[in-house]
Amino acid sequence: MAFLEYAPAPESRAILSLRDEYGIFVDGEFRPAAGASFDTISPADETRIATVAAASDDDVDAAVAAARRAYTKVWSRMSGRDRGKYLFRIARLVQERARELAVAESLDNGKPIKESRDVDVPLVAAWFFYYAGWADKLDYAGLGADPRALGVAGQIIPWNFPLLMLAWKIAPALAAGNTVVLKPAETTPLSALLFAEILQQADLPPGVVNIVTGAGATGAALVRHPDVDKIAFTGSTAVGREIARAVAGTDTRLTLELGGKAANIVFDDAPIDQAVEGIVNGIFFNQGHVCCAGSRLLVQESIHDEVVDRLKQRLSTLRLGDPLDKNTDIGAINSRAQLERIRELSRIGEEEGAVRWSAECAIPDTGFWFAPTIFTDVQTSHRIARDEIFGPVLSVLTFRTPAEAIAKANNTPYGLSAGIWSEKGSRILAVADKLRAGVVWANTFNRFDPASPFGGYKESGFGREGGRHGLLAYLKSPVSGRGVAK
Amino acid sequence: MSKRLTVPKTYKLFVGGAFPRSESGRVYEVRGSDGAFLANAARASRKDARDAVVKARAAVAGWAGATAYNRGQVLYRIAEVLEGRRAQFVAEVVAQEGVSAAAAGTQVDEAVDTWVWYAGWCDKFAQVTGNANPVAGPYFDISVPEPIGVVAAIAPQDSALRGITRVLAPALVAGNAVVVIASEAHPLSAISLAEVIATSDVPGGAVNVLTGSPAELAPWLASHEDVNALDLAGAGDLDWVELQIAASQTLKRVLPPEVGADAAEPSLQRISAFTELKTVWHPKSLV
Question: Considering the domain B11-283 in this protein, what is its CATH number?
Fold first, then answer.
């Protein structure tokens, strides 16, 4: 749409002063890893950003040992008030360096700068600020007086919200008195490494947070490590299953935040303008790389055509391109592998008989891109209605009655999130009651807040992140364990 | 005058609100601590376990959909009916466990009190474990615990009534349906408890009691795709790591084995272990 063409407005990369090569962050210092190294690239143009370490088993071992020392000698002895002060410091430093972190995130991940700048990084600061205040109030967390930390937490995070997932993991763990070994995703280590510099600026005691970069093998070493007391993982359900299997029979505590195939239910009395914006936000936010994305649109049959028409109109106005451009709505797909998966599932969608529509937009010559896409005539049996695509692809299904909408919404092994659009309060509340999902957004979508617990039912994982419940994932009751075997 | 001939009870399973025999036709001898024959208990099969899960799943909507006040009254009713049959339960515990009548009486009293304690939680735990969330925006945001669905439990094996009460009651509080494997050595009180439950307005299928071999039955429940949570309280003598591995493949919530007199002792954590927290957002606006 010509009238929507804006002059390029790229955010400057000059604010970044990156190293050419990063080691692992252990005991408060960057150090070379014993393992190999690999390049992290910008998915928007496939250029190299920096070289990062692929932490080996020995590197993970060193990081866990550092975390254990810091737990035993420093962090578990420190007052909650002082732990909280470190977290407040971190929150402030994140705010101070917000622009830099946003640019690094968009560069490494491919997400639009307006999202990293306005959503990811402000939430990171908010997360640390929220949990900072909990550190000296653990008696009120709900486990009775004097709850205990678990010890060393191993945390494995995905590539879709690299720094935000880091905050979701580290903030409650430290507030509760644990020390941490965190493994960022293979394709998005950059913001975690910048965050390590923030920890140095905050003067956080060495070893309290250790960051080991690498791929699946590094994560597996962390999961298998005998001196880790807690594993927190966000990622795919398949890997979540493997982790649950690996820790079976051990004392390692586990929280899993896994995949989703959320239904976004639009009733015929919904405020259509808001619903269309909510549908777009639900599935095209962050290129659809969102575990709680509203990837299944369930629209009441009588308004199906109107909603789809308006969606197509709206999608035609979205600008796809340079993630660092302030006007960009849709950034790059994070990796070639993910792009291939999105293409594959979309191809299967067509083969199975769904009707594909993609927004017309210029696709850059280099980098990984996928135009916003809608499938109509989708049946509940189609792969694109069952499998998590994790990309900017919306599957549209219809329903006639609320009961049918609820049945279709719940017809998935996942149960992370759901959306409801209606002007009728009593119906919203009744439908919300019946949806088997951990987060239900009514007349809104993809809202996140550190005070609000987030997490899934069924095969979307267990445990909650955010709020008081997020804290409980890193605490144990002083009396729990009485009578527990082993 | 000749001594009156007694009428012994046939102990069967409790599935879907009915008392069927095992479809396998199998029974096993239950003997008292003195070795005397007490009864033949049904030896439930894999198919009985799967039938029980089907019945449990069907019961979830009704039991979870009942008001919390109503569930509390039903659980209290279990306590009432159990109290009224105290003498029978004491005699059964004495016969199975070989303990003194006083010890058995303590166990039965404790069971009654456990039902009363959990009954009171039905309309309160959500106020304690849920939250209003003060988010940074114009949204109503609330987190409430909901039942997880179908819970499979292995009752502590060393007691006839205490163990099964301690795993059943907390799982029922939130509105879950339960399939419980009774103590293998002392299964008779479990079936008598099922009779109490059957006459206490608990909807059929919300509680299903299997007797037989936990080692044989538990793997089918641990791997069952329509079971949401696994309580291994009484699985300490089984290969419970394998059960946990089986459960991991459907990402079931698992509670570990517990041993001793404190096993599965009443706690709020036992209620919330079988809940899922749901967070609901809605915008606030004057227009």
Answer: 3.40.605.10
